[in-house]
Amino acid sequence: MDVLMQVLVSSVLLAGVYYIISLGLNIIFGVLDIVNFAHGAMIILGAYASYYLSRLTGWDPFVLVIFDGIIVAAIGALLYLGYLRYTTNSPLVRMFALIGFSSVVVATLLVVSGSTFRDVTVDYGLTEILGVTVRISQIVAFVFAIVLGAITLLALNYTKVGKAVNAVTDDRVSVQLSGINDRNLSLLAFAVGAGLAGASGGIISTYIAFIPESGLQFAIVAFAVVIIGGLGDLRGGAVAALVVALLQTAVSVYVSSALVNTALFLTVLLVLLFRPRGILGKGRI
Amino acid sequence: MPLLTCDHLTAGYSDLIAVRDLSLSLEEGELFGLVGPNGAGKSTLLKAITGVVPLRSGSVTFQGHSVGSLPPEVRARRGMAMVQEGRRLWPTLNVRDNLMLGAYHEKRKEQRVREEEVLDLFPALRLILKRSAGVLSGGEQQMVAVGRALMAKPKVLLIDEPSLGLAPIIVDEIYASLPTLLENGVSIILVEQEVRRLLDLATRLAVLHEGEVAYEGDGKQFRDNPEALTEYYLGTVSKQGREQ
Fold this sequence. Notes:
heterodimer, A: mainly alpha, two-stranded antiparallel ribbon, B: alpha/beta, Rossmann fold, globular
C-alpha cells in the first residue's frame, strides 16, 4: 500500500512537469502544423540556461525558470523568423531544418559545457504528502509547472490574442480575411512554444542532472504525451501527462526501469491504433 | 469612379487557371451577382479579389488604390470582407468570439456596438452567443459568417454561395438582410447558384463560363425567363453575350 501511494504521489508530481514539457510542442503543432523536432533541444537549452545563469547570478533556480523561458523564446523567434517561415510549403524541409537546429544546439553545448552531467538542484528539505516523503523542490516544480500551464491556457482562452491564436488553429484563411495578421500570430505561437520548452527545461534542471544529449529523452516524453493526449488537444495533454507519468513510475517500480521506454512506446502504439484522436478523442489526425 | 475594379485578371491554382483575363467593376451601393456552373471560376474570382489566391496577371483596384499585391489581411482592413463558401467559422470558439474577432483591431467598446448591430440584423444569434460555433446548424453558421464579416464594417462584402445546403426559410432570412446592408452603404458581390433569388436583388449580373465573363448586364431579360441563362452557362453564346 505504501509503495502504491508512493507511485501515485510521485506520478502526480511528475505529471505536472510532463504537461509543461508537452504544452509547447502541442501549441506549435496546433497553430503552425509544425512537428517541432527541435523540442528536446529547446528543453535542454532551458536547462543549460538555468545552469549558467545560476552560476552567474546565484539566484534561486525557480526564479531563473522565467529567464530560461524568455531566452529560449527569443531563440525560437529568431529560428522562426530567420528560417522556418520560409518553409511553409515543405514539411520535409522544415523537419530537416529542425533536426539540424537540434544537432547544432547539442554540438554547441558539448563544445561549451562538455559531456559532464550538470544540475541546478535545490534543497528545500523534505515533507510528507499522504504519508509519502517527497522533496519540497519537487512540489515547487509541480506548482510552478501547473501555474505556468494555467497561465498559458488562460491566455489562450480568455485574451483577444489567445482567441485569435485558436482561430488560426481552426481556420487560417478566415483569420486573414478578418484583417488579422496570421504570420504574427504564428511567430508568437512558435516563440511561446519554444519559451515553454525552455521554461520546462529550467524546471527539470532543478531535480535531474543532464548532459547535452538529454533533450532526446525529454522530447520522447513530450511526443508521447502529445500523441496520447491527441494532437493539438491541450486538455487531453493534461490527462496524457498523468498517464505517462503513472506508466513510467509504475513500470519502473513494479517491473523494471529498463522497460520504461518500451512500455511508453507500446502505449503510444495502442493509442494510435485504437484512439488516433487521443485519449479524449478531440485531437487531430 | 467604381468602388472595385478587376482589370484583365488571371488567377488559379498551380497548373490550373480558373479565372482568365477577366474584367469587371462594382459601383458603390450596388449588388453585383455572379452566376455560372461549377468550376466557372466564381469562387476563385472572389478569392483573387480578397487576396486569398494570388493574381497571375491583371490588377485589382479598390477605392482608387491598386491592392493586387497586398496580403488578404491588409485588404480586409481597407474595407473588403468575404463570407466564404461553407461558412468557415472557427468551430472551437463560441459565436460571440467569432463575431468579436471579425472586429479584431477595434476597441472593446466599439466591438460591442458592432455586435449589437449584427444582433439587430440577426436576432436569432442573441440566444446562442455562448454556443460553440462547431455545433451550430447550417443556417446559424451562415448568420454568424455574415455577421463576422459585417463586424469589420466593410465597404464591400463578397458572399460565396450563401444558400448552399440551407433550408429555403433560412436562405430567405439571409437574403432579407441584404437590402439593409445596401442601405447602410455596403456594396455586395454575391455568388449564387439560385439564379431566381439573385435576379430579384442584383443591380447587375455576370455569368462566368470557364473563367471568362460570358454575359454582363442588368439581367432584366432573364427575370421572366431565367432558363435563358442556361445558354450562357453552357458557353454557347459566350462572347456575344457581353454586348447585350
